[in-house]
Design goal:
single chain; mainly beta; Immunoglobulin-like; four-stranded antiparallel beta sheet; three-stranded antiparallel beta sheet; 12 strands; 0% helix; rod-shaped; FN3_sf; protein phosphatase; transmembrane helix; immunoglobulin domain; transmembrane
């Protein structure tokens, strides 16, 4: 399901022009409410991609500009990290990106399994593989992987 966020399109300019917004051939600004000089279109709950057209009209003529709004679904989180290599004080983990779209980078967080342990954070990794060193032998570690998309 697409994420529903408010989005505002604003047109400004100089001169005494009337401004309106259109979606395909539908006027989104009633003719008797067309403002002079500035018009803001608030898009709430949009679920489909569309082109919104800004039309400015004055005694000099008519000009149009198109704002393309693309709605995308939220990406899935990366798969569960799997330990693929171990030594006494290090592990290597791999995971599935979980998405067809490319990941900008991954964030790896890990900590010891004690109440006072804080997460160590490593970010900017581009591959779904990471080695964690300097671990304490015979201690449990919690690991989580996050992904950052464009």
């Amino acid at each position: 399901m697409p994420l529903q966020l408010p989005h505002h399109l604003r047109m400004v300019g100089s001169g005494m022009s009337l401004r309106k917004w259109m979606l395909n051939s539908e006027d989104l600004t009633p003719e008797d409410e067309m403002p002079v000089g500035r018009n803001v279109l608030a898009l709430d709950g949009i679920q489909e991609s569309a082109n919104y057209t800004c039309v400015a009209m004055s005694s000099l003529g008519i000009i149009e500009a198109v704002a393309q709004i693309t709605v995308k679904s939220l990406p899935r989180p990366p798969g569960t990290p799997m330990v693929t290599e171990t030594t006494a004080t290090s592990i290597t983990i791999t995971w599935d990106s979980g998405n067809p779209d490319p990941v900008l980078y991954y964030i790896i967080q890990y900590r010891g399994k004690t109440a006072d342990s804080k997460y160590e954070t490593m970010d900017g990794y581009h591959l779904p593989r990471y080695s964690i060193g300097c671990l304490l032998a015979q201690h449990r570690t919690t690991i989580r992987v996050l992904s950052h998309y464009r």
